[in-house]
Amino acid sequence: MCGIAGRLNWNAPIDPAQLAAMIGQLHHRGPDQQGFYNKGPIGLAHARLSIIDLSGGDQPMCNEDGTVWVVFNGEIFNYIELRAELQRRGHRFATQSDTEVLVHLYEDHGDALVDQLNGQFAFALWDVPRQRLLLARDRTGIRPLFHTRVPGGLAFASEVKALFALPEVPRRLDAKALGEVFTYWAPLPPHAVFEGIESLPPGHMMSVDARGTQTRRYWDWSFPPASIEDERSAAACADELRDLLIDAVRLQLRADVPVAAYLSGGLDSSIVTTLICHYTDTPLRTFSLTFDDAEFDESPWQQQLVRHLGTDHTTVHCTRADIAAAFPRTIAHTETPIVRTAPAPMMLLAAGVRAAGYKVALTGEGADEVFGGYDLFKEARVRRFMARQPASRWRPRLLERLYPYLKHSPAAGRAMTERFFREGEAHFREPWFAHLPRWTTTRRITGFLSPEWRAAATAADPIATLAAQLPADISRWEPLCQDQYIEAHTLMSGYLLCSQGDRMAMAQSIETRFPFLDHRLIAFASQLPPRYKLMGLVEKYLLKRSMDGLLPDALRHRTKQPYRAPDSQSFFHNGEPVDYVADLFSVARLKEAGYFDPEAAIRLFDKARAGKVIGFGDNMAFVGMLSTLLLHDQFIRR
User: Which GO terms describe its cellular component (predicted)?
Assistant: First the structure.
Protein backbone atom coordinates (compact mmCIF):
# COMPACT_ATOMS: atom_id res chain seq x y z
CA MET A 1 0.00 0.00 0.00
CA CYS A 2 1.26 3.43 -0.88
CA GLY A 3 0.43 6.99 -1.77
CA ILE A 4 0.81 8.37 -5.27
CA ALA A 5 0.76 11.91 -6.61
CA GLY A 6 1.76 13.71 -9.76
CA ARG A 7 1.32 16.59 -12.12
CA LEU A 8 1.11 16.97 -15.87
CA ASN A 9 2.04 20.38 -17.29
CA TRP A 10 2.27 20.86 -21.05
CA ASN A 11 3.53 24.44 -20.70
CA ALA A 12 6.42 24.29 -18.24
CA PRO A 13 8.69 21.87 -16.36
CA ILE A 14 7.34 20.45 -13.11
CA ASP A 15 8.65 22.17 -9.98
CA PRO A 16 10.36 19.45 -7.87
CA ALA A 17 9.40 21.30 -4.69
CA GLN A 18 5.73 20.97 -5.61
CA LEU A 19 6.08 17.24 -6.14
CA ALA A 20 7.82 16.90 -2.79
CA ALA A 21 5.11 18.95 -1.08
CA MET A 22 2.37 16.79 -2.60
CA ILE A 23 3.86 13.47 -1.61
CA GLY A 24 4.83 14.84 1.79
CA GLN A 25 1.12 15.10 2.56
CA LEU A 26 0.83 11.34 2.05
CA HIS A 27 3.57 10.19 4.41
CA HIS A 28 1.04 8.16 6.43
CA ARG A 29 0.25 6.10 3.33
CA GLY A 30 3.90 5.32 2.67
CA PRO A 31 6.32 5.98 5.54
CA ASP A 32 9.05 3.61 4.29
CA GLN A 33 10.38 5.40 1.18
CA GLN A 34 9.78 8.25 -1.25
CA GLY A 35 10.62 8.32 -4.96
CA PHE A 36 10.27 10.71 -7.90
CA TYR A 37 10.31 10.76 -11.70
CA ASN A 38 10.35 14.25 -13.20
CA LYS A 39 11.03 14.64 -16.90
CA GLY A 40 9.40 16.69 -19.63
CA PRO A 41 5.73 17.46 -18.92
CA ILE A 42 5.25 14.80 -16.21
CA GLY A 43 6.17 14.55 -12.57
CA LEU A 44 5.41 11.36 -10.62
CA ALA A 45 5.84 10.90 -6.87
CA HIS A 46 5.47 7.87 -4.64
CA ALA A 47 5.34 7.21 -0.89
CA ARG A 48 5.91 3.53 -0.15
CA LEU A 49 4.64 1.15 2.49
CA SER A 50 6.89 -1.86 1.88
CA ILE A 51 4.97 -5.14 1.73
CA ILE A 52 6.26 -7.10 -1.29
CA ASP A 53 9.96 -7.13 -2.32
CA LEU A 54 11.01 -5.04 0.66
CA SER A 55 14.47 -4.21 -0.68
CA GLY A 56 13.81 -3.92 -4.40
CA GLY A 57 10.35 -2.53 -4.99
CA ASP A 58 11.02 1.20 -4.87
CA GLN A 59 8.97 3.42 -7.19
CA PRO A 60 8.52 5.09 -9.64
CA MET A 61 9.29 1.97 -11.66
CA CYS A 62 9.96 1.53 -15.37
CA ASN A 63 10.29 -1.13 -18.07
CA GLU A 64 13.61 -2.30 -19.52
CA ASP A 65 14.25 0.72 -21.76
CA GLY A 66 12.63 3.42 -19.63
CA THR A 67 9.79 4.11 -22.04
CA VAL A 68 7.00 3.26 -19.55
CA TRP A 69 6.91 4.57 -15.96
CA VAL A 70 4.42 3.85 -13.20
CA VAL A 71 3.52 4.82 -9.65
CA PHE A 72 1.19 2.34 -7.99
CA ASN A 73 -0.95 2.21 -4.87
CA GLY A 74 -2.24 -1.22 -3.88
CA GLU A 75 -1.55 -4.88 -4.58
CA ILE A 76 -1.72 -7.17 -7.61
CA PHE A 77 -2.52 -10.48 -5.98
CA ASN A 78 -1.96 -12.62 -9.08
CA TYR A 79 1.39 -11.01 -9.88
CA ILE A 80 3.30 -14.30 -9.56
CA GLU A 81 1.24 -15.92 -12.32
CA LEU A 82 1.38 -12.77 -14.46
CA ARG A 83 5.13 -12.49 -14.01
CA ALA A 84 5.68 -16.10 -15.11
CA GLU A 85 3.65 -15.57 -18.29
CA LEU A 86 5.44 -12.30 -19.07
CA GLN A 87 8.82 -13.97 -18.64
CA ARG A 88 7.77 -16.71 -21.05
CA ARG A 89 7.08 -13.98 -23.58
CA GLY A 90 10.60 -12.58 -23.14
CA HIS A 91 10.19 -9.77 -20.64
CA ARG A 92 13.06 -9.18 -18.20
CA PHE A 93 12.32 -8.24 -14.59
CA ALA A 94 14.63 -6.15 -12.41
CA THR A 95 12.68 -6.70 -9.15
CA GLN A 96 10.43 -9.19 -7.37
CA SER A 97 7.73 -6.54 -6.96
CA ASP A 98 4.12 -6.88 -8.04
CA THR A 99 4.34 -3.32 -9.41
CA GLU A 100 6.70 -4.29 -12.20
CA VAL A 101 4.13 -6.50 -13.91
CA LEU A 102 2.17 -3.34 -14.76
CA VAL A 103 4.78 -1.84 -17.10
CA HIS A 104 5.31 -5.14 -18.92
CA LEU A 105 1.59 -5.85 -19.20
CA TYR A 106 1.15 -2.38 -20.68
CA GLU A 107 3.83 -3.14 -23.27
CA ASP A 108 1.87 -6.22 -24.39
CA HIS A 109 -1.75 -5.23 -23.83
CA GLY A 110 -1.92 -1.44 -23.68
CA ASP A 111 -4.89 -0.14 -21.70
CA ALA A 112 -6.34 -3.66 -21.56
CA LEU A 113 -3.72 -4.53 -18.94
CA VAL A 114 -6.37 -3.90 -16.27
CA ASP A 115 -8.35 -6.91 -17.48
CA GLN A 116 -5.45 -9.14 -16.40
CA LEU A 117 -5.30 -7.84 -12.84
CA ASN A 118 -6.66 -9.46 -9.71
CA GLY A 119 -6.10 -6.78 -7.15
CA GLN A 120 -6.95 -3.55 -5.42
CA PHE A 121 -5.19 -0.62 -6.98
CA ALA A 122 -4.89 2.90 -8.26
CA PHE A 123 -2.01 3.71 -10.56
CA ALA A 124 -0.62 6.38 -12.87
CA LEU A 125 1.33 5.19 -15.91
CA TRP A 126 3.34 7.47 -18.21
CA ASP A 127 3.96 6.36 -21.80
CA VAL A 128 7.08 8.29 -22.83
CA PRO A 129 6.92 7.82 -26.64
CA ARG A 130 3.23 8.71 -26.80
CA GLN A 131 3.50 11.42 -24.11
CA ARG A 132 0.36 9.95 -22.56
CA LEU A 133 -0.79 9.58 -18.96
CA LEU A 134 -3.03 6.68 -17.96
CA LEU A 135 -4.86 6.69 -14.61
CA ALA A 136 -6.76 3.59 -13.47
CA ARG A 137 -8.68 2.49 -10.39
CA ASP A 138 -9.67 -1.00 -9.23
CA ARG A 139 -13.02 -2.54 -10.02
CA THR A 140 -14.84 -1.87 -6.74
CA GLY A 141 -13.12 1.31 -5.58
CA ILE A 142 -11.00 -0.06 -2.75
CA ARG A 143 -8.15 2.39 -3.42
CA PRO A 144 -8.81 6.10 -4.01
CA LEU A 145 -7.62 8.38 -6.81
CA PHE A 146 -8.46 12.08 -7.16
CA HIS A 147 -7.61 14.56 -9.90
CA THR A 148 -8.11 18.23 -10.72
CA ARG A 149 -7.44 20.62 -13.55
CA VAL A 150 -4.52 22.97 -12.96
CA PRO A 151 -2.85 25.55 -15.22
CA GLY A 152 -1.17 23.70 -18.05
CA GLY A 153 -2.71 20.31 -17.38
CA LEU A 154 -3.74 17.99 -14.55
CA ALA A 155 -2.78 17.01 -11.00
CA PHE A 156 -3.69 13.72 -9.32
CA ALA A 157 -3.19 12.07 -5.94
CA SER A 158 -4.36 9.32 -3.61
CA GLU A 159 -5.86 11.93 -1.28
CA VAL A 160 -7.18 15.45 -1.69
CA LYS A 161 -4.74 16.92 0.83
CA ALA A 162 -1.90 16.27 -1.62
CA LEU A 163 -3.71 18.32 -4.27
CA PHE A 164 -4.12 21.14 -1.76
CA ALA A 165 -0.31 21.29 -1.55
CA LEU A 166 -0.58 23.12 -4.90
CA PRO A 167 -1.38 26.78 -4.20
CA GLU A 168 -3.50 27.13 -7.34
CA VAL A 169 -6.03 24.49 -6.19
CA PRO A 170 -8.96 26.29 -4.48
CA ARG A 171 -10.42 25.09 -1.19
CA ARG A 172 -14.21 25.27 -1.24
CA LEU A 173 -16.90 22.73 -0.46
CA ASP A 174 -19.13 21.71 -3.35
CA ALA A 175 -22.79 22.21 -2.46
CA LYS A 176 -24.09 19.52 -4.81
CA ALA A 177 -21.63 16.97 -3.43
CA LEU A 178 -22.60 17.96 0.11
CA GLY A 179 -26.23 17.27 -0.78
CA GLU A 180 -25.19 13.83 -2.01
CA VAL A 181 -23.28 13.11 1.22
CA PHE A 182 -26.44 14.05 3.10
CA THR A 183 -28.36 11.52 1.03
CA TYR A 184 -26.10 8.59 0.11
CA TRP A 185 -23.47 9.06 2.88
CA ALA A 186 -20.88 9.90 0.18
CA PRO A 187 -20.65 11.92 -3.04
CA LEU A 188 -21.61 10.10 -6.22
CA PRO A 189 -18.54 9.69 -8.43
CA PRO A 190 -17.01 11.51 -10.11
CA HIS A 191 -17.92 14.14 -7.52
CA ALA A 192 -15.66 14.83 -4.56
CA VAL A 193 -16.79 17.07 -1.75
CA PHE A 194 -14.46 19.91 -2.81
CA GLU A 195 -15.14 22.12 -5.81
CA GLY A 196 -13.05 21.39 -8.87
CA ILE A 197 -11.77 18.04 -7.59
CA GLU A 198 -13.04 14.75 -8.98
CA SER A 199 -12.69 11.12 -7.98
CA LEU A 200 -11.94 8.58 -10.69
CA PRO A 201 -14.91 6.20 -10.37
CA PRO A 202 -14.35 2.52 -9.52
CA GLY A 203 -13.71 0.32 -12.55
CA HIS A 204 -12.68 3.31 -14.68
CA MET A 205 -9.55 4.52 -16.42
CA MET A 206 -8.66 7.96 -17.73
CA SER A 207 -6.12 8.82 -20.42
CA VAL A 208 -4.62 12.28 -20.90
CA ASP A 209 -2.48 13.47 -23.80
CA ALA A 210 -2.03 16.65 -25.84
CA ARG A 211 -5.33 16.02 -27.63
CA GLY A 212 -7.40 15.94 -24.44
CA THR A 213 -8.85 13.60 -21.83
CA GLN A 214 -10.89 10.42 -22.20
CA THR A 215 -12.54 8.45 -19.39
CA ARG A 216 -14.08 5.01 -19.81
CA ARG A 217 -15.47 2.22 -17.68
CA TYR A 218 -13.62 -1.08 -18.08
CA TRP A 219 -15.60 -3.18 -15.57
CA ASP A 220 -18.93 -3.20 -13.76
CA TRP A 221 -21.19 -5.45 -11.74
CA SER A 222 -23.59 -7.34 -14.01
CA PHE A 223 -26.60 -9.54 -13.30
CA PRO A 224 -28.64 -11.84 -15.58
CA PRO A 225 -32.18 -10.98 -16.70
CA ALA A 226 -34.88 -12.14 -14.31
CA SER A 227 -36.37 -14.32 -17.03
CA ILE A 228 -33.36 -16.68 -17.08
CA GLU A 229 -33.85 -19.88 -15.09
CA ASP A 230 -30.90 -21.32 -13.15
CA GLU A 231 -31.35 -24.92 -12.06
CA ARG A 232 -27.97 -25.43 -10.38
CA SER A 233 -28.29 -27.16 -7.01
CA ALA A 234 -27.44 -25.30 -3.84
CA ALA A 235 -24.97 -28.05 -2.91
CA ALA A 236 -23.00 -27.68 -6.14
CA CYS A 237 -22.98 -23.89 -5.87
CA ALA A 238 -21.83 -24.07 -2.25
CA ASP A 239 -18.90 -26.30 -3.20
CA GLU A 240 -17.86 -23.95 -6.00
CA LEU A 241 -18.19 -20.95 -3.71
CA ARG A 242 -16.00 -22.54 -1.03
CA ASP A 243 -13.26 -23.23 -3.59
CA LEU A 244 -13.39 -19.64 -4.85
CA LEU A 245 -13.23 -18.27 -1.31
CA ILE A 246 -10.24 -20.42 -0.43
CA ASP A 247 -8.37 -19.23 -3.51
CA ALA A 248 -9.26 -15.57 -2.90
CA VAL A 249 -7.96 -15.79 0.67
CA ARG A 250 -4.84 -17.64 -0.48
CA LEU A 251 -4.00 -14.96 -3.03
CA GLN A 252 -4.59 -12.11 -0.60
CA LEU A 253 -2.23 -13.59 1.97
CA ARG A 254 0.70 -12.96 -0.38
CA ALA A 255 3.14 -10.61 1.33
CA ASP A 256 6.73 -10.42 2.50
CA VAL A 257 5.55 -9.20 5.92
CA PRO A 258 3.27 -10.87 8.50
CA VAL A 259 -0.46 -10.66 7.77
CA ALA A 260 -3.20 -10.23 10.38
CA ALA A 261 -7.01 -10.39 10.19
CA TYR A 262 -9.85 -8.33 11.61
CA LEU A 263 -12.35 -10.40 13.60
CA SER A 264 -15.64 -8.60 14.25
CA GLY A 265 -17.62 -11.56 15.54
CA GLY A 266 -19.86 -11.62 12.48
CA LEU A 267 -20.09 -14.26 9.78
CA ASP A 268 -17.87 -12.61 7.18
CA SER A 269 -14.70 -12.02 9.18
CA SER A 270 -15.24 -15.42 10.83
CA ILE A 271 -15.17 -17.04 7.38
CA VAL A 272 -11.94 -15.28 6.40
CA THR A 273 -10.15 -16.27 9.61
CA THR A 274 -11.49 -19.83 9.45
CA LEU A 275 -10.26 -20.31 5.88
CA ILE A 276 -6.83 -18.96 6.80
CA CYS A 277 -6.61 -21.46 9.66
CA HIS A 278 -7.90 -24.47 7.72
CA TYR A 279 -6.42 -24.01 4.26
CA THR A 280 -3.13 -22.10 4.64
CA ASP A 281 0.05 -22.28 6.67
CA THR A 282 -0.13 -18.60 7.65
CA PRO A 283 0.27 -17.99 11.40
CA LEU A 284 -2.88 -16.10 12.28
CA ARG A 285 -3.03 -13.02 14.50
CA THR A 286 -6.53 -11.58 14.90
CA PHE A 287 -7.71 -8.18 16.13
CA SER A 288 -11.13 -7.05 17.35
CA LEU A 289 -12.94 -3.94 18.54
CA THR A 290 -14.89 -3.99 21.80
CA PHE A 291 -17.20 -1.35 23.28
CA ASP A 292 -18.63 -0.49 26.70
CA ASP A 293 -22.14 -0.32 25.25
CA ALA A 294 -23.72 -3.77 24.94
CA GLU A 295 -25.69 -2.53 21.92
CA PHE A 296 -22.45 -2.22 19.92
CA ASP A 297 -20.18 -4.78 21.57
CA GLU A 298 -19.74 -8.20 19.93
CA SER A 299 -16.97 -9.57 22.13
CA PRO A 300 -18.83 -12.79 23.18
CA TRP A 301 -19.03 -13.83 19.51
CA GLN A 302 -15.43 -12.82 18.90
CA GLN A 303 -14.21 -14.89 21.82
CA GLN A 304 -16.25 -17.91 20.72
CA LEU A 305 -14.40 -18.03 17.40
CA VAL A 306 -11.03 -17.29 19.01
CA ARG A 307 -11.53 -20.32 21.24
CA HIS A 308 -12.70 -22.41 18.28
CA LEU A 309 -9.68 -21.54 16.11
CA GLY A 310 -7.09 -20.94 18.81
CA THR A 311 -5.84 -17.70 17.25
CA ASP A 312 -3.39 -15.29 18.83
CA HIS A 313 -5.92 -12.56 19.56
CA THR A 314 -5.83 -8.90 20.57
CA THR A 315 -8.79 -6.70 21.49
CA VAL A 316 -8.81 -2.94 21.10
CA HIS A 317 -11.29 -1.43 23.54
CA CYS A 318 -13.01 1.77 22.38
CA THR A 319 -14.88 4.10 24.72
CA ARG A 320 -17.09 7.05 23.86
CA ALA A 321 -14.30 9.36 25.01
CA ASP A 322 -11.91 7.59 22.62
CA ILE A 323 -14.28 8.28 19.73
CA ALA A 324 -14.55 11.97 20.63
CA ALA A 325 -10.79 12.31 20.94
CA ALA A 326 -10.15 10.56 17.62
CA PHE A 327 -12.89 12.27 15.62
CA PRO A 328 -10.98 15.37 14.43
CA ARG A 329 -8.19 13.17 13.05
CA THR A 330 -10.82 10.89 11.55
CA ILE A 331 -12.19 13.79 9.49
CA ALA A 332 -8.69 14.91 8.52
CA HIS A 333 -8.32 11.50 6.85
CA THR A 334 -11.84 11.00 5.44
CA GLU A 335 -11.61 14.41 3.74
CA THR A 336 -15.41 14.43 3.58
CA PRO A 337 -18.29 14.86 6.00
CA ILE A 338 -19.61 11.61 7.45
CA VAL A 339 -22.91 10.88 9.15
CA ARG A 340 -21.78 8.15 11.58
CA THR A 341 -18.85 7.91 14.00
CA ALA A 342 -18.10 4.29 12.98
CA PRO A 343 -14.89 5.18 11.08
CA ALA A 344 -13.19 6.51 14.23
CA PRO A 345 -13.03 3.14 16.06
CA MET A 346 -11.75 1.53 12.85
CA MET A 347 -8.84 3.97 12.89
CA LEU A 348 -8.13 3.00 16.51
CA LEU A 349 -8.28 -0.69 15.56
CA ALA A 350 -5.73 -0.07 12.80
CA ALA A 351 -3.52 1.68 15.35
CA GLY A 352 -3.61 -1.48 17.47
CA VAL A 353 -2.63 -3.59 14.48
CA ARG A 354 0.27 -1.27 13.66
CA ALA A 355 1.44 -1.20 17.29
CA ALA A 356 1.63 -5.01 17.21
CA GLY A 357 4.07 -4.81 14.30
CA TYR A 358 1.74 -5.58 11.38
CA LYS A 359 1.25 -3.73 8.10
CA VAL A 360 -1.47 -5.89 6.47
CA ALA A 361 -4.87 -7.09 7.66
CA LEU A 362 -7.58 -9.10 5.89
CA THR A 363 -11.21 -8.14 6.51
CA GLY A 364 -14.68 -9.51 5.74
CA GLU A 365 -15.94 -6.30 4.13
CA GLY A 366 -17.91 -6.72 0.91
CA ALA A 367 -19.67 -10.01 1.68
CA ASP A 368 -22.98 -8.30 2.47
CA GLU A 369 -23.08 -6.52 -0.88
CA VAL A 370 -21.96 -9.59 -2.84
CA PHE A 371 -24.13 -12.22 -1.11
CA GLY A 372 -27.17 -10.23 0.04
CA GLY A 373 -26.45 -9.78 3.73
CA TYR A 374 -27.92 -6.44 4.74
CA ASP A 375 -31.20 -5.87 6.54
CA LEU A 376 -31.97 -3.44 3.74
CA PHE A 377 -32.35 -6.37 1.34
CA LYS A 378 -34.73 -8.20 3.67
CA GLU A 379 -36.57 -5.00 4.41
CA ALA A 380 -37.03 -4.30 0.69
CA ARG A 381 -38.43 -7.78 0.10
CA VAL A 382 -41.06 -7.20 2.81
CA ARG A 383 -41.81 -3.66 1.60
CA ARG A 384 -42.36 -4.85 -1.98
CA PHE A 385 -44.61 -7.61 -0.58
CA MET A 386 -46.57 -4.94 1.34
CA ALA A 387 -46.78 -2.59 -1.65
CA ARG A 388 -48.55 -5.21 -3.75
CA GLN A 389 -51.43 -5.24 -1.22
CA PRO A 390 -51.28 -1.88 0.60
CA ALA A 391 -54.48 -2.57 2.54
CA SER A 392 -53.17 -5.78 4.11
CA ARG A 393 -52.95 -5.69 7.94
CA TRP A 394 -50.80 -8.79 8.37
CA ARG A 395 -48.09 -8.19 5.76
CA PRO A 396 -46.50 -5.30 7.74
CA ARG A 397 -46.16 -7.68 10.71
CA LEU A 398 -43.23 -9.28 8.87
CA LEU A 399 -41.25 -6.11 9.60
CA GLU A 400 -41.19 -7.05 13.28
CA ARG A 401 -38.65 -9.76 12.37
CA LEU A 402 -36.12 -7.09 11.33
CA TYR A 403 -33.54 -5.27 13.44
CA PRO A 404 -33.67 -7.43 16.62
CA TYR A 405 -30.28 -5.98 17.68
CA LEU A 406 -31.39 -2.32 17.69
CA LYS A 407 -32.24 -0.60 20.95
CA HIS A 408 -34.34 1.94 19.05
CA SER A 409 -35.60 -0.12 16.12
CA PRO A 410 -37.64 1.53 13.35
CA ALA A 411 -39.86 -1.57 13.55
CA ALA A 412 -40.47 -1.27 17.30
CA GLY A 413 -43.78 0.59 17.15
CA ARG A 414 -46.67 0.03 14.76
CA ALA A 415 -47.17 3.72 13.89
CA MET A 416 -43.45 4.29 13.32
CA THR A 417 -43.27 1.11 11.27
CA GLU A 418 -46.09 2.22 9.00
CA ARG A 419 -44.55 5.67 8.42
CA PHE A 420 -40.96 4.52 7.90
CA PHE A 421 -41.40 1.43 5.78
CA ARG A 422 -44.11 2.77 3.50
CA GLU A 423 -41.69 5.45 2.29
CA GLY A 424 -41.87 5.63 -1.51
CA GLU A 425 -44.37 2.77 -1.65
CA ALA A 426 -45.76 3.98 -4.97
CA HIS A 427 -42.30 3.52 -6.51
CA PHE A 428 -41.87 -0.14 -5.58
CA ARG A 429 -41.05 -1.08 -9.18
CA GLU A 430 -38.18 1.42 -9.42
CA PRO A 431 -34.59 0.12 -9.05
CA TRP A 432 -33.89 2.44 -6.09
CA PHE A 433 -37.05 1.56 -4.14
CA ALA A 434 -35.15 -0.40 -1.46
CA HIS A 435 -33.00 2.57 -0.51
CA LEU A 436 -35.64 5.30 -0.24
CA PRO A 437 -36.25 5.08 3.55
CA ARG A 438 -32.54 5.39 4.34
CA TRP A 439 -32.00 8.18 1.84
CA THR A 440 -35.04 10.07 3.09
CA THR A 441 -33.89 9.79 6.70
CA THR A 442 -30.36 10.91 5.85
CA ARG A 443 -31.63 13.76 3.67
CA ARG A 444 -33.25 15.35 6.72
CA ILE A 445 -29.80 16.78 7.41
CA THR A 446 -30.30 19.26 4.57
CA GLY A 447 -33.02 20.86 6.70
CA PHE A 448 -30.25 22.13 9.02
CA LEU A 449 -28.40 23.91 6.21
CA SER A 450 -28.52 27.68 5.90
CA PRO A 451 -30.97 28.92 3.24
CA GLU A 452 -28.20 29.60 0.72
CA TRP A 453 -26.49 26.23 1.14
CA ARG A 454 -29.79 24.36 1.28
CA ALA A 455 -30.89 25.87 -2.02
CA ALA A 456 -27.59 24.94 -3.67
CA ALA A 457 -27.37 21.47 -2.11
CA THR A 458 -30.91 20.52 -3.09
CA ALA A 459 -31.02 22.24 -6.48
CA ALA A 460 -30.46 18.93 -8.26
CA ASP A 461 -32.52 15.84 -7.56
CA PRO A 462 -29.99 13.29 -6.22
CA ILE A 463 -32.12 10.34 -7.30
CA ALA A 464 -32.24 11.66 -10.86
CA THR A 465 -28.44 12.03 -10.75
CA LEU A 466 -28.10 8.42 -9.62
CA ALA A 467 -30.68 7.15 -12.10
CA ALA A 468 -28.68 8.62 -14.97
CA GLN A 469 -25.71 6.45 -13.94
CA LEU A 470 -27.57 3.13 -13.74
CA PRO A 471 -27.16 0.41 -16.41
CA ALA A 472 -29.65 0.52 -19.24
CA ASP A 473 -30.84 -3.03 -18.53
CA ILE A 474 -31.19 -2.76 -14.73
CA SER A 475 -34.99 -2.93 -14.98
CA ARG A 476 -34.64 -6.48 -16.38
CA TRP A 477 -32.84 -7.74 -13.26
CA GLU A 478 -34.40 -9.34 -10.21
CA PRO A 479 -35.24 -6.74 -7.52
CA LEU A 480 -32.57 -8.10 -5.16
CA CYS A 481 -29.94 -7.67 -7.89
CA GLN A 482 -31.05 -4.06 -8.40
CA ASP A 483 -30.70 -3.48 -4.67
CA GLN A 484 -27.23 -5.01 -4.62
CA TYR A 485 -26.00 -2.95 -7.56
CA ILE A 486 -27.09 0.37 -6.04
CA GLU A 487 -25.74 -0.55 -2.61
CA ALA A 488 -22.35 -1.43 -4.10
CA HIS A 489 -22.17 1.81 -6.09
CA THR A 490 -23.25 4.15 -3.30
CA LEU A 491 -22.69 3.11 0.31
CA MET A 492 -19.99 0.48 -0.28
CA SER A 493 -17.66 2.25 -2.68
CA GLY A 494 -18.26 5.79 -1.43
CA TYR A 495 -18.37 5.25 2.33
CA LEU A 496 -17.49 1.75 3.56
CA LEU A 497 -14.39 1.24 1.40
CA CYS A 498 -13.33 4.88 1.59
CA SER A 499 -14.19 6.74 4.82
CA GLN A 500 -14.50 3.59 6.94
CA GLY A 501 -11.98 1.47 5.05
CA ASP A 502 -8.92 2.72 3.16
CA ARG A 503 -8.71 6.10 4.92
CA MET A 504 -8.88 4.76 8.48
CA ALA A 505 -6.39 1.96 7.87
CA MET A 506 -3.94 4.14 5.97
CA ALA A 507 -4.11 6.79 8.69
CA GLN A 508 -2.11 4.22 10.66
CA SER A 509 -0.09 2.91 7.67
CA ILE A 510 -2.08 -0.33 7.53
CA GLU A 511 -3.12 -2.03 4.29
CA THR A 512 -6.51 -3.76 4.48
CA ARG A 513 -7.43 -6.50 2.02
CA PHE A 514 -10.89 -7.70 1.02
CA PRO A 515 -11.15 -11.33 -0.18
CA PHE A 516 -14.91 -11.06 -0.71
CA LEU A 517 -14.29 -8.35 -3.32
CA ASP A 518 -12.18 -10.60 -5.54
CA HIS A 519 -13.83 -9.89 -8.90
CA ARG A 520 -14.18 -13.61 -9.58
CA LEU A 521 -16.34 -13.96 -6.47
CA ILE A 522 -18.46 -10.99 -7.50
CA ALA A 523 -18.99 -12.46 -10.96
CA PHE A 524 -19.91 -15.86 -9.47
CA ALA A 525 -22.33 -14.44 -6.90
CA SER A 526 -23.95 -12.09 -9.42
CA GLN A 527 -25.02 -15.07 -11.53
CA LEU A 528 -26.55 -16.99 -8.61
CA PRO A 529 -30.31 -17.34 -8.32
CA PRO A 530 -31.46 -14.66 -5.83
CA ARG A 531 -32.94 -17.40 -3.60
CA TYR A 532 -29.41 -18.62 -2.88
CA LYS A 533 -28.52 -15.22 -1.46
CA LEU A 534 -31.74 -14.31 0.34
CA MET A 535 -33.73 -17.44 1.18
CA GLY A 536 -37.03 -16.06 2.47
CA LEU A 537 -35.66 -13.69 5.13
CA VAL A 538 -32.46 -15.66 5.74
CA GLU A 539 -29.55 -13.58 4.50
CA LYS A 540 -26.42 -14.98 2.78
CA TYR A 541 -27.96 -18.44 2.58
CA LEU A 542 -25.39 -19.98 0.22
CA LEU A 543 -22.43 -18.35 1.97
CA LYS A 544 -23.55 -19.89 5.25
CA ARG A 545 -24.10 -23.25 3.59
CA SER A 546 -20.59 -23.19 2.08
CA MET A 547 -19.16 -23.08 5.61
CA ASP A 548 -21.03 -26.14 6.87
CA GLY A 549 -18.63 -28.16 9.01
CA LEU A 550 -16.06 -25.36 9.21
CA LEU A 551 -17.79 -22.78 11.42
CA PRO A 552 -19.67 -23.44 14.68
CA ASP A 553 -23.39 -23.52 13.89
CA ALA A 554 -24.13 -20.69 16.34
CA LEU A 555 -21.84 -18.38 14.37
CA ARG A 556 -22.87 -19.73 10.98
CA HIS A 557 -26.57 -19.09 11.61
CA ARG A 558 -26.17 -15.90 13.61
CA THR A 559 -28.45 -13.08 12.38
CA LYS A 560 -26.57 -10.27 10.69
CA GLN A 561 -25.65 -7.43 13.06
CA PRO A 562 -23.95 -4.56 11.24
CA TYR A 563 -20.93 -2.86 12.76
CA ARG A 564 -21.95 0.34 14.56
CA ALA A 565 -20.53 2.71 17.16
CA PRO A 566 -21.98 5.30 19.59
CA ASP A 567 -22.78 8.52 17.73
CA SER A 568 -23.83 11.84 19.31
CA GLN A 569 -23.52 10.49 22.86
CA SER A 570 -19.76 10.15 22.34
CA PHE A 571 -19.30 13.92 22.43
CA PHE A 572 -20.91 14.65 25.80
CA HIS A 573 -19.95 13.59 29.32
CA ASN A 574 -22.49 14.17 32.08
CA GLY A 575 -24.17 16.74 29.88
CA GLU A 576 -20.98 18.64 29.13
CA PRO A 577 -19.70 18.75 25.55
CA VAL A 578 -16.13 18.05 24.50
CA ASP A 579 -14.32 21.38 24.16
CA TYR A 580 -13.86 21.42 20.40
CA VAL A 581 -17.51 20.41 19.88
CA ALA A 582 -18.76 23.29 22.02
CA ASP A 583 -16.52 25.68 20.09
CA LEU A 584 -17.67 24.50 16.66
CA PHE A 585 -21.34 24.73 17.65
CA SER A 586 -21.01 28.27 18.99
CA VAL A 587 -23.04 30.93 17.19
CA ALA A 588 -19.87 32.71 16.07
CA ARG A 589 -18.29 29.62 14.51
CA LEU A 590 -21.54 28.49 12.89
CA LYS A 591 -22.02 31.93 11.29
CA GLU A 592 -18.38 32.06 10.19
CA ALA A 593 -18.59 28.68 8.42
CA GLY A 594 -21.97 29.56 6.95
CA TYR A 595 -23.18 26.04 6.09
CA PHE A 596 -25.83 25.59 8.76
CA ASP A 597 -28.65 27.61 10.25
CA PRO A 598 -27.28 28.55 13.70
CA GLU A 599 -30.62 28.34 15.51
CA ALA A 600 -31.45 24.89 14.13
CA ALA A 601 -27.93 23.60 14.76
CA ILE A 602 -27.88 24.80 18.36
CA ARG A 603 -31.33 23.31 19.05
CA LEU A 604 -30.02 19.89 18.00
CA PHE A 605 -26.81 20.48 19.98
CA ASP A 606 -28.86 21.19 23.12
CA LYS A 607 -31.00 18.14 22.49
CA ALA A 608 -27.88 15.98 22.20
CA ARG A 609 -26.43 17.49 25.37
CA ALA A 610 -29.62 16.54 27.19
CA GLY A 611 -29.23 12.96 25.97
CA LYS A 612 -32.41 13.10 23.90
CA VAL A 613 -30.89 12.38 20.49
CA ILE A 614 -31.66 8.69 20.10
CA GLY A 615 -33.08 8.24 16.58
CA PHE A 616 -31.11 7.65 13.40
CA GLY A 617 -32.15 10.95 11.83
CA ASP A 618 -31.02 13.22 14.65
CA ASN A 619 -27.83 11.24 15.23
CA MET A 620 -26.87 11.45 11.57
CA ALA A 621 -27.68 15.16 11.51
CA PHE A 622 -25.49 15.87 14.54
CA VAL A 623 -22.53 13.84 13.27
CA GLY A 624 -23.00 15.23 9.76
CA MET A 625 -22.90 18.82 11.01
CA LEU A 626 -19.96 18.20 13.33
CA SER A 627 -17.91 16.50 10.63
CA THR A 628 -18.67 19.27 8.12
CA LEU A 629 -17.58 21.92 10.61
CA LEU A 630 -14.38 19.98 11.34
CA LEU A 631 -13.70 19.62 7.63
CA HIS A 632 -14.12 23.36 7.14
CA ASP A 633 -11.88 24.08 10.12
CA GLN A 634 -9.09 21.78 8.96
CA PHE A 635 -9.09 22.30 5.19
CA ILE A 636 -10.58 25.74 4.56
CA ARG A 637 -10.48 27.98 7.65
CA ARG A 638 -6.83 27.16 8.39
Answer: cytosol
